[in-house]
Structures
1.
Amino acid sequence: MISDRIGLIDTSEIRRVFDLAAAIKNPVNLSIGQPDFPVPAAVKEAFIKAIQDDKSGYTPTAGLLSLREAIAEKLQTRNQIQVSPDNILVSTGVASILFLLFQASVNPGDDILLIDPYFLIYPALVKYHSAQLHTLPENFQQQDVEDFLQKGIKPKLIVYSTPSNPTGRILEADQLKLLVQIAQKTGALLVSDEIYEAFDYENKFISTASLYPEGTLTLNGFSKSHAMTGIRVGYIAAPAGLSKIVQKMATLQQYSIVCAPHPAQIAAITALKTDLSNELVLMKERRDMLAEKLAKFTEFARPDGAFYIFPKIPAHSSEFIERAIKERLLLVPGYIFGKDPNWVRISYAQKNEILEEGIQIFEKIFTDLQNGN
């Protein structure tokens, strides 16, 4: 009774940890990528007013025109990207956008290029669609790109997040230009997942489409920036030359998701006008505190953005996680994000006292394993 293709994917390890949090008494949860601050008051008010005004019916499949116009304006003024509202599709978060995109563009056997480490949804979608997975290391340079091109692989999509989940790295302009080089030589489309754009601590973020507008699909949303993880609004923006992909995604949405929730779309319009500077300062302070403590005993790439740190550990991450669970500490194992299993993802979207307790438990487990205990 179960399809062959659904057997290609399994329950997300992040969701497993999320479920564990509900079962463990007083967990120290540094696993989930969900801001601990509330939805901004103005966004809440917009959502509530939409409900009170009976804005609860279907919207156009592609999303409210007023929201798509607001997104187009945001992309132009903040990201230096010119996109028509007609080439923007709104859906229930970036996860849904990714699924629609793969369904609309990927055939069995197609090559897909990811940046390692990568968000776990990416390889799951590659596998589900019977495509072929290829990777570049996150610190890739010119030689890595030349070596890849020499293999003769012609990826259909190059998918990456910047800032990154799980490392918090923001890809440099030179790296983005190298990805453009691959795209131009192979015909690949760049799929830039920019859901963590708001958390840019060093003012390094560059939207790929500002460098390569004709070949970039830009993905973004409101889950992380505005703590709207359960409200579910995300979007894809495409240049005119790639409008057919968005149209086919919208057609598929008609038969599946139908539309993003009407009041949530109205709230998202307000979210685009909401200042997030206080949240950015808060997350940066947490990053600095955690980085200072971790630097005393392990290695990691200092995050430029998002709200994760990805430290190296002296054991396979599955063993580390098992020990951590016994101490009530919930983390995400590194093996789900890439080829090297000796890392774990720590989310610092938590209150300081929880971070302090978590890092004490983390250091104890780390030291015990390092000493062979």
2.
Amino acid sequence: MRGYDTSDTGQLLKNLGFPLLKVHASYSHHDFITPGRRILVIGPMGSGKTEFTARVWRDSKVALRKNGKAGNLTTTKGVDRREVFVVRASLDKTRFPDYPEDALAFRGGYERCGDHIGSARDSFALEVLLAENPSAGTWIVDETAFFDERIAYLMAEESESRGVTFICPTLVLNFRREIFNQTARLLLENATDVFPLTAYCEHEDCLLDSLYTYRYYLIDGKECPALYFDPLIIIGGDRTKTDGREPNYCTRCDTHHYLPGKEYTFFTLKPLGEQAARGNIAPLLNELNALAGNIEASRLYASMVKRYIACEEPCPVPMNALLVPCIAERALVYLYAEQNLLSSEQVIFIVNKLGLDREYLAQRLADNRRPLEL
């Protein structure tokens, strides 16, 4: 009987003459009755998070056709949870450039939302949308982890005081397989419901389930895994790219999720940044110079050869990470924008000293909300 349903449902099926089956939970239509829910829909890229919320939009169209007592069941303090409003993160507007402006878009299609869709850069802009649409009771806030931390508490306050429901299709883990950011952490703390979604590992030899988003670059047809210290946020479209400055994403299982350079980041790169923060910038400058112009002389190269080549089971794919351009620039973004170890003056000095790619740096710093005039 192991693995089979022994619940009342399972016994009922047995009594009706069905064999013992493994009975899974069915997909239920969205609950517009229960007030004040904060629902996280989490999973890797391609797992169907936005498509999940598109089903909620379609359910709302059915629910809104009902009259009488149905409206009383779904309404709290003038807020009707059958009325859905979609909010897209301004940072993520370029994902589906070919779809209509009012589209709730996902990989398999889209839903037209008319005037019930908007975009917001931060929690303050969301607050404005909430005030402008006071009767909307269900808010789909796409890619919520891209917003500032305040959004978690704004949603909690609105749901508890007015019965508003928020549905947040979002990454919780980043390409490093870590909690995406502090916003993601606070969203988890304040959630009432979590729907985890998975996807098939997209490696050509694998069909295992995966929860992880994998970032990689394509250079001359080669898969080049992103280094651990690759910029955390890179804004871009949802199409395959062959420019080594622009990443691609898929979902991968444990075995095929390559993440080179993690040990180097904590053994070498971050300590060099800490030395620079204390005033000794020369060791960091030497390493960045090697990363920019003579990769085989870098400590990164030595670390990766030791880990992936000079070992019992060599794995050459992670070494492709060294083929991507702007490795020194990526390291600089990590130390400045994420770790706050370098001053703006030090960054400008390093850029000028080593002749680094200003355009790439300016774009990535802007993506990570640390813009700098270079």
